[in-house]
Amino acid sequence: MKLSICNLRRLIFILTLLAVSSCATYYQSNFTFNQEFESGQLQKAYTTLQHHASMAHGKKQFLYFVNNGLVLSMMGKYAESNDFFEKAYLFGEDYRINYLNEVASYLTNPNFTSYKGEDDEHLLLLYYKALNYLKLNDTDNALVEIRRLNIRLQQLSDRYQSTKKYEHDAFINLLMGITYEVDKDYNNAFIAYRNAWEVYNNDYKKLFGLSAPPQLKEDLLRTAWLSGMKSEFESYKISLGMPNYNYKPSEGAELIFFWHNGLAPVKIEWGVDFIITRQGGLVYFTNEQLGLSFPFPIEGYNENQINGLASLQVFRVAFPKYVERPPYYSDAFVAINGSKIPLQLAEDVNKIAFKCLKERMGLEFSKALLRVALKKVSEYEVRKQDETLGSLLGIFNAITEKADTRNWQTLPHSIYYSRVPLQEGQNSLSFTLKSPIGKTAEHQFTYTVKKGQILFHTFSSLESNYPSYGN
Fold it and tell me: Is 178 among the domain residues?
């Protein structure tokens, strides 16, 4: 059943109002929250989130859940934080494509669909959840999250079968090892540390230029010894270049210190111009400068529609693109009892985000080009009936051509860690941050521990040398 010209006018008007109201990037549409969060005003940022509680049932519910979870975790409200992270996890488990919204996205833009989250974002929400439980000294529930993480890693590995893709996560394996070690399950801890070591050396070094943190060598050797794997212990002493290492039981306690440095990248819109050419049964969308060429099959379209598409010479397509927010600080160390212990880079969240988007850009390109092609064909058909309405539809198509700029923007740029020996009783330490130009900031912490205890601490530095990504 065809829409009348009158009804079509009304539909275009309504959809244009909806499109104009949502033309801002995701960062811009949450500007107040972002500014409060980035300046460390966590209570204000949380209050602002609660003023947008309707998002818990909308197309951005995943981001609403994880932002609440992360802010509450930073505020030390770990149980409340995990309530939101659990909702985000269940959203990912129960995610179903809404085909009506999918159709609407091809008439407008991908923001009409629910944001389902990137692969790395689903891993990191469980990292935060497990870490929250470890801080609460709830090892049993931390192990539940570790098992969930293991399933997620298997799903990631099954989805991608290429050494050039992000299909394994070294840091998540490292976290699994730490959690098993807290549970005194040294055999599984050793296996997880070994997996982490292999992923750092086989994948991360090539994909992200990141080698295994030196601390992981000691983690491997310690758990090999505690597991009774004497042959593996001796073998790794040689292969890791630590022939003189001997396991020595701790006489006190231990602090595992995580440093969340900077802020994750922000998605912006990237407009690309394409030239259309027709060759046989295909129409090609080409951008020679970027070396892009995508075929669009025209089988099933009538000649008028094909001519309408082929008559176009140049048109713009919107795609998502990440902009890095370089962290202000580049180095940090813990000072305790006359020793300086450096924080070691374990996860480059920024580079992984770029990699995840790059791996699906082929799909992004094809979906965006199909979207624009369908818009242009419909515009050509309407112009034949009513030139004015066709022009109006053309304006609507231009206004609604938007990229999906949603992503989890409160994540850190990168994650560092170190294991700090503590004495039984009260311990005082200083944590020093250093910028590339020599600026420093120092923070003092005090811990009271029992012998054999393992404590967890997270420090988040939100400062960034960010570009004008909000414009």
Answer: no
Output the pTM of the full model. Answer: 0.86
Same domain for 375 and 307: yes
* Residues 448, 450: Cα–Cα separation, whole Å: 7
- Which residues neighbour 96 within 8 Å (Cβ) at sequence distance 6 or greater? none
User: In the chain, which stretches have pLDDT less than 50?
Assistant: 1-3, 19-21, 470-471
Same structural domain, 304 and 373: yes
Q: Which value, in Å, is the radius of gyration of the alpha carbons in the chain?
A: 26
Q: What is the DSSP letter of 248?
A: -
Q: How far is residue 334's CA from residue 443's CA, in Å, rounded to a whole number?
A: 10
CB 135 within 8 A of CB 90: no
| pLDDT tens digits, 30-59 | 999 999 999 999 999 999 999 988 888 888
Query: Cα dihedral sign for 60, 62, 67, 68?
Result: positive
Copy the structure tokens of residue 416: 């560092």
Number of folded domains in the chain?
A: 2
CATH assignment of the domain containing 458: 2.60.40.10
- Local structure of 322: helix, strand or coil: strand
Structural domain boundaries enclosing 307? 268-322+360-400
